[in-house]
Structures are given as C-alpha cells and as structure tokens.
Design brief:
This protein has 199 residues and is an all-beta fold. The chain contains no helices and 18 strands.
C-alpha cells in the first residue's frame, strides 16, 4: 500500500485527487502546505441545522481494510480552523478527525462521524499550544478505530465507530477547512496507507 512522503515530492502523485481544491498549496522539504479558503466546512444537519460540504480534501480510493496515518503541523487563525484525516463515502456519509482551534487557551481534539446525512461531534479539550500531531484511522469491515499521537509511536484511542453501509472502496486522505475564518495553513508531512492491525 502507498506511502506518500510529501517532503520528497515536487508534484502531487497522479493517484491523489482534490475534493474541493484549496486556495493554494505548495510542496517543499517540510511537506504539503495547504491554505484553506474562507468559510469552508464539513457538517451535516445535526443541532446547527446547516449542511456544508466544501472543505478541502486530498484523497485516494482504497479497497478493503486499511490503516491511514498522517503527521500535520498547523497555524490556526480563527475559531474552528481544523485539519486532519478524512474518509469519504459521499456528502451524507463520512468521517473526519482533527484538532479544532477554539481560542488562545484551548482547542478541541475530536472526530465527526456522519451517517445518513447527520453528523455527530465527539471532543476533548486540549491546549491551544498543541500544533503538531499524528492521526491514525484503521478500518475493519464497516468499523473504524480512530487514534492520535504526539510522536507517531505512542497511540491514544479517540473513538471506535461505524460507517453504515460503507462500500468496499472508500476515498481516504487528509483535509482542512476554516468554518468561520478567512483561511489558515496546515502542513502535512505524509499520508501513509498500510494494512489494518486492528482486529
């Protein structure tokens, strides 16, 4: 399975595709720097009533079980600026995991699982100084194990969840968005896709 080390690329590989291209992006020795467009988001219905499907994703189709990992650094500019991993079936069924900036003191580390057109939001408060993090999602059938790590070695469970009627092939990769802000920059070092070790 592929390992996309963005620090080694001058162009994006052909088997990665944009869903909602960002304002700009750049590849250099630090990785893929992605700058979001203003007022972009992923959310469906629950509580707030609105439906948004215009955040930025860089995805590739993967069949069967997998482990998806990334390492990202970010400089938030406004409330809810966020970046992390994304699994997409369609606009009504998807998963994201990220850290959402709240204020200079705190952010919210968490995940959103959207099934049948309705999103949930599971979070825990973390320091706003947490600006570099690793995320991992592992798939076993229609079930998903979501984790985070400060160093890419010691993993901490965020959530176990399910994506209803998930097809054998999903689009998976990285994402970023700015729900209320004018945009910010996130730098992804890699996308690593491997065998799921979660059984």
């Amino acid at each position: 399975m592929p390992h996309y080390d963005f620090t080694q690329f001058s162009e994006l590989p052909d088997d990665l595709h944009w869903f909602n291209k960002p304002a700009s992006y750049n590849l250099d020795s630090n990785g893929l720097a992605l700058s979001t467009k203003p007022e972009t988001d992923f959310w469906q219905g629950t509580h707030y009533g609105f439906r948004r499907d215009d955040g930025h994703c860089l995805l590739t189709p993967v069949k069967g079980d997998f482990s998806l990992t990334t390492e990202v650094s970010f400089i938030p500019e406004a409330q809810y600026d966020q970046c992390g991993l994304f699994l997409r079936m369609n606009s009504k069924n998807w998963i994201k995991v990220s850290t959402e900036y709240e204020n200079p003191e705190m952010s919210r580390l968490g995940s959103v699982v959207t099934n049948l057109g309705y999103s949930d939001w599971a979070t825990q408060d973390v320091s706003a100084d947490q600006l570099h993090i690793h995320y991992r999602i592992q798939r076993t059938s229609q079930d998903f194990f979501i984790e985070q790590s400060p160093d890419g070695k010691n993993w901490i469970q965020i959530r176990v969840t399910r994506l209803h009627d998930a097809p054998e092939t999903l689009d998976i990769g990285i994402y970023a968005c700015s729900p209320v802000g004018k945009g910010f920059t996130a730098t992804f070092k890699e996308i690593e896709i491997g065998e799921s070790a979660w059984r």
